[in-house]
Amino acid sequence: MLELNYLRANTQRVKAGLRVRSLPEEEQRIVDDIIALDDRRKALQTELDQLLAERNALSKEIGGLFKSGKREEAEAKRARVNEIKEEASATEEQLKAAKVQLEDLLYKVPNVPHESVPAGDSDEDNEVYQDWSGGLPQLPEGSLPHWELAQYYPLFDLELGTKLTGSGFPVYRGKGARLQRSLIQFFLDEAAKAGYEEILPPLIVNDATARATGQLPDKEGQMYHIEREDFYLIPTAEVPITNIYRDVILEEKDFPIKMTGHTPCFRREAGSYGADVRGLNRVHQFEKVEIVQIQHPDKSYETLEEMLQHVGGLLDKLELPYRILRLCGGDLGFTAALTFDFEVYSAAQKRWLEVSSVSNFETYQSNRMKLRFKDGKQSRLAHTLNGSALALARIVAALIENNQTPDGIMIPKVLQDYTGFDRIEKKA
RNA sequence: GGUGACGUGGGUGAGUGGCUGAAACCACCAGUUUGCUAAACUGGCAUACUCUUAACGGGGUAUCGGGGGUUCGAAUCCCCCCGUCACCGCCA
Predict the structure, then answer these.
(1) CA at A96, C1' at B67: how many angstroms apart?
(2) Taking Cα atoms as reference points, which of A311, A416, A394, A341 lies closest to residue A402?
(3) Which end of chain A is less congested by CB atoms within 10 angstroms, N or C?
(4) Domain A123-424 has CATH 3.30.930.10
């Protein structure tokens, strides 16, 4: 969530940010409501503190009076303290209520978009930041989308996943499974080379963790919830990995903190239908390697650029055509200040598939997470960033479509050491 | 899942109702002394909220795993929860 002090000091910027996100005018009133409520909270806090201070002083006196045997005086003060306690508990309740309301409102305000974010309503307004400079691959007549390729090649089986669980849970088999494992290995190795520490986190997290990175409360319906323990299946490794640094105060010399991890990701994807979700385009469980950085506020945009380079490098090595989009305000995630999406061209579907999203959250996550660093005597919130490097299912989709040949599905050179084969041939 | 013990500041650890935001030691930072290093000595060393100040700073409140209760007053007493450790049960 936004820092309250920032919001108070930059009301106009926050409101302008809401406009960039194409949120309705009445949303802007929330900003003024927050300030009014915070004023009330401060007044109540001061009132309560004064009452407690008085109570503490009197209690001290009472102790002394009892010791010196002045019972009557002590009793009189004791009566006064009891009055104060009544007042204090009433004030405290109002204060608690104000805090809860304030937090609820604050949770409703999305991050302020970076100044470079174009205004816009939807993905149609996203800006092409870096286009694909080569030609787009043209496949010969009779080329197939990946879900049809899976009928002829040992790759994956969607119906089988439906039998075991439900739709959207593919089962990868044979060389298809091996290809997945090879990609994961390759991505982790590349991240390690770039200086990221490898993390293997829990796949199930508690409420506090899901809240800190911003999945709760705004994306509640997107996650699988485990009722009995009140836990959530992670929708991305970002959640447990970033939370490693929840409630931590860093030293400036600790920056940058670079972590990577491979995990399955679980997403309910409620309300998604149609051609966009065919095959591996949108599934409930997929593998992903995530990169996360925690950085000094002055350097986080350099870091974002570095992460773009890293992701672009992976796609170059996989020889996949891609472009980079700068998301417009309307398409920007609730918690992000700036996001670049990587899209890979899927030649058989003749469309771009999103395979990575690289974002700077500035202090939006670190504020919820209380992730700070020492800046001289003061502590300040750090910046958090993350990106997919990369998300597997769609990479696999594009890879097998683009590389289909009469001799089989060709494996990019860089992966061959991992797969142990250079092509996938048709099923017998 | 059962039984028992325990949970104090960056670490070790004292503290069983007021004088304890918390001894002492270690670590860390600044300074003094000293051919260098080391040692010794002196001082500093939590976080959040809030009031006040132009600022430096100063005042107040809260925090001893979390929540609730008893009391004029709680790290200290009571209840619930969470966690750690040990033993038993179960088990990849």
Answers:
(1) 15
(2) A394
(3) C
(4) yes
3-state secondary structure of A252: helix
pLDDT band at residue A288 under the 50/70/90 scheme: very high
Q: For residues A119 and A125, is the Cβ–Cβ distance under 8 A?
A: yes
Peptide bond into A217 cis (omega under 30): yes
CATH 3.30.930.10 residue ranges for chain A: 123-424
- Distance CA(A255)–CA(A170), nearest Å, equals 39
CATH 1.10.287.40 residue spans of chain A = 4-107
**Positive or negative CA dihedral for A34, A7, A373, A237?**
positive
For residue A279, give both structure tokens.
């095959």
CA A248 → C1' B22, Å?
23
SS3 A355: strand
**CA proximity to A388, closest of A412, A359, A362:** A359
Strands A225-226 and A231-233: antiparallel
CB A418, CB A185: distance < 8 Å: yes
Candidates 3.40.50.300, 1.20.1250.20, 1.10.287.40, 1.10.1040.10; CATH matching A4-107: 1.10.287.40
Contact between A305 and A340 under an 8 Å Cβ cutoff? The reply is: no
Burial class for A132, CB neighbours closer than 10 Å (0-12, 13-18, 19+): middle
CA A218 to C1' B52, whole Å: 39
List bases in chain B with any atom under 7 Å of a protein Cβ: 18, 47-51, 57, 59-62, 72-73
Instruction: Write phi, then psi, for A404 (nearest 5 degrees).
Output: -75, 135
Q: Are strands A383-391 and A285-295 parallel, antiparallel or unpaired?
A: antiparallel
Specify the pLDDT at position A272.
Answer: 63
pLDDT tens column, A242-254: 999 998 888 888 8
Per-residue model confidence as pLDDT tens digits over A62-83: 888 887 778 888 888 888 999 9
How many CA atoms does the CB half-sphere of A72 hold within 13 Å? 0
Distances from the Cα of A132 to the Cα of A185, A291, A333, A384, angstroms? 26, 23, 24, 28
Question: What is the residue type of A220?
Answer: E
Spatial CB neighbours of A328, under 8 Å, sequence gap ≥ 6? A117, A118, A119, A120, A121, A122, A123, A125, A126, A127
